[in-house]
Amino acid sequence: xxxxxxxxxxxxxxxxxxxxxxxxxxxxxxxxxxxxxxxxxxxxxxxxxxxxxxxxxxxxxxxxxxxxxxxxxxxxxxxxxxxxxxxxxxxxxxxxxxxxxxxxxxxxxxxxxxxxxxxxxxxxxxxxxxxxxxxxxxxxxxxxxxxxxxxxxxxxxxxxxxxxxxxxxxxxxxxxxxxxxxxxxxxxx
Length: 189
Prior knowledge:
alpha+beta; Jelly Rolls; four-stranded antiparallel beta sheet; 9 helices; 8 strands; about 50% helix
């Protein structure tokens, strides 16, 4: 719980308010490797915070291949944004890559808390802004940069992700095959 409180503090929330906000993350879920937090065509009803392990977000494309969009590491939130906000079915899966523990807040509890507390609304606004800016940068990277520059960009901006995420998922995030990722890592330029 302390890491969640510290996360809220990074968003400018004072200690007392951060403790109150963290208190609505009242349930801990434990997932074994390959277990799902969320499956496609379901509705995201929980906002999660990874305290141990990691979760990958992936889609199944028209060819039946799994395409990893992102990986949430320890001390990061995990949820399907559009599904959580609008309570609509998601297109993505969220799956534990290794044994994972997640603190969760239920959608109705989160919404009620945000309605009643200005600092929670402020946190939520800033968090969504950062999330969207991040996605915009990743889309730009996939569209405008070659594989080497995408890898260098990821390494510079998300070094922990590059160090900890298994190569097959990291390659998918970059839009390359694992064999190509090995060449990118080996290239000293």
